[in-house]
Design a protein that fits this description.
The protein has 276 residues and is mainly beta. It has helices at residues 2-15, 63-68, and strands at 51-58, 61-62, 77-84, 94-97, 105-108, 113-122, 136-137, 148-156, 161-169, 172-178, 186-194, 199-201, 206-207, 212-218, 225-230, 236-247, 252-263, 267-272.
């Protein structure tokens, strides 16, 4: 009975949207879309769907509670992708934003066989590149945020099935706390950092590409905390951070280099002044 109810909810959501939401990659949110070149699932009629996915929890907190706000989890976007056991994507990725109808639910049409299911939750400005499950990638212009992952293997047979997914955090946070005042003419602060990754392997949840990450913050005198997110390639690593303060003409006012130890999935707090 529960399974029948879930299927009915999926059909109502997937067929009842009056307004299509266009995602960053040119597809319709909530439907099978392609964020980059990939394989088409081959069926678009809702009666042909045989794998239904729903995000149940993120770090053990129900998605419904997260969407209401007031939890430590932030998530404004979800991305789903399916790969065969050789690592080739077999359907177009589905990308959703929190305001979309059916946020947290997706459906696919697959041939019989084994597949890797990947779901990613984040609050970046755009969608990750998901053509390769060993290097799901966020870029500097998208921004780096807390990132959550579900990866599992499913066997698709003759009967349709519905799966509830639990996602867990894979990112680390380097929280830099400024102890000195900024120069009066400061316009923005840049953090350029290496040692972590903006890409990850879906099977391990670890960073998989050596990345040079960069993020800018406005020079707000009242803002003394800066959160830098990365995905570590191993349990412990050191983040090399170059802090640069610019004026409105993009001239460097101060610059300082830091080495900050980090652990996988944890937050490290580092207090420092920004003077040379």
């Amino acid at each position: 009975m529960l399974r029948s109810s879930l299927l009915l909810i999926f059909f109502l959501v997937l067929s009842g949207c009056e307004k299509a939401i266009i995602d960053d990659d040119g597809g319709k949110a909530g439907q099978e879309t392609d964020d980059e070149a990939g394989h088409d699932a081959g069926h678009d009629v809702k009666e042909d769907y045989n794998l239904f996915l729903t995000v149940a929890t993120i770090d053990s907190i129900p998605l419904a509670e997260i969407m209401k706000g007031g939890t430590p989890i932030t998530c404004s976007r979800l991305s789903f992708a399916i790969y065969d056991m050789d690592g080739s994507r077999v359907s177009r990725a589905i990308h959703q934003q929190v305001a979309d109808d059916g946020f947290g639910m997706s459906a696919f049409t697959l041939s019989e066989g084994q597949y890797q299911i990947v779901a990613v939750a984040h609050s970046s400005d755009r969608n990750p590149t998901m053509s390769d499950p060993t290097a799901i990638k966020f870029s500097n212009d998208q921004g780096f945020t807390p990132t959550y992952l579900h990866s599992s293997v499913v066997t698709v047979g003759k009967k349709s099935q519905t799966l509830a997914l639990s996602l867990h955090g894979i990112s680390s946070c380097c929280r830099i706390v400024r102890t000195s005042d900024l120069p009066p003419e400061a316009s923005r602060v840049r953090f350029f950092y290496t040692g972590g990754s903006g890409a990850f392997n879906a099977s391990t949840g670890r960073g998989s590409v050596k990345s040079s990450q960069s993020v800018f913050f406005p020079a707000d005198a009242s803002c003394r905390q800066y959160d830098l997110y990365t995905i570590l390639p191993r349990e412990e690593a050191s983040l090399n951070v170059l802090v640069t303060v610019y004026n409105a003409r993009n001239h460097v006012l101060t610059e300082k280099e830091l080495d900050i130890p980090l652990r996988h999935r944890e937050t490290s707090v580092y207090e420092t002044d920004f003077s040379d």
